[in-house]
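seq as requested:
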Amino acid sequence: EPGLLHTTCQWGNYQLTLEFRADEATNSGVFLRTPPVVTDVARRAYEVNIAPADNPFPTGSLVERLRSAEDTSGQGWRTMDITADGPRVTVAIDGREVLDYTDPKPLGRGYIGLQFNQGKIEFRNVKLRPLGMKPIFNDRDLSGWKTFPNVKSVFGVTTDGELSVKDGPGQIETAGQYGDFTLQLDVFVRGRGLNSGVFFRCIPGEPMNGYESQIHNGFVGGDRTKPVDCGTGGIFRRANARYVVADDFEWITKTIHVDGPRMAVWVNGYQVTDWTDTRKPDPNPRRGLRLEPGTVQIQGHDPTTDLLFRNLRIAELPKR
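struct tokens:
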């Protein structure tokens, strides 16, 4: 029977690419900024339709919003590229733009869904790239960051424009505060089995009182499904990484996505954590659920700490 397979987190602005294969009479779709249950697609979601040419909204159209004027018929595996950026939604099929729509009353965020309605439909290679990312590190100095007195960690900027973190314990925190967001950064661990972390929704001015996305590339007995000390991308003391993707002495990219109580982390594009904080609310995330905005902090864990960070960027999720 008809249904919708949707993401566990809501997303705002992004580029979405996928491949699909549909029978000639199939009616399916890709939902953007949708609630889990859609009752009014004309106002509560954007549905990029997959349907025959004789449908009122053939493949590439936005259902109940705008019909594509292009011939989008075809067979076999096909590509769909969707950009949702503010009020504007564009769709390309097999590399050719077939729709450009601007919503006078845009939706801000919602889930992404793959619909089964009728007929056979297959999807593969579904990938997302967040948009609107803004740098929070300028590659030159520590402007926009607060250092703490009387800590052992040393923070600086290398000649190549990287944030250097050595020794510990200690931390550095952003001047800005963030609640629901996507944070991306590159990190290079310059030693075997070193420990660090990226803290978020921190209580401003307090050392590492926040959620921690762990950095530790160790694993047990050659098995990457058995992380040491939570594993890179895990939420420390809450959810271990399901797979240790990262290696020491290599640049890796971490994506941290935070949507209310739901938190998900990707390492090099591979999702390693998807966790919901079901604890009772508390101002301190170490004790309970914190939804209020807080700072981002980078940790110097101990005297062995020696890491580099670069390309730190963040995008706050728009309201619904």
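The chain has one helix and 24 strands.
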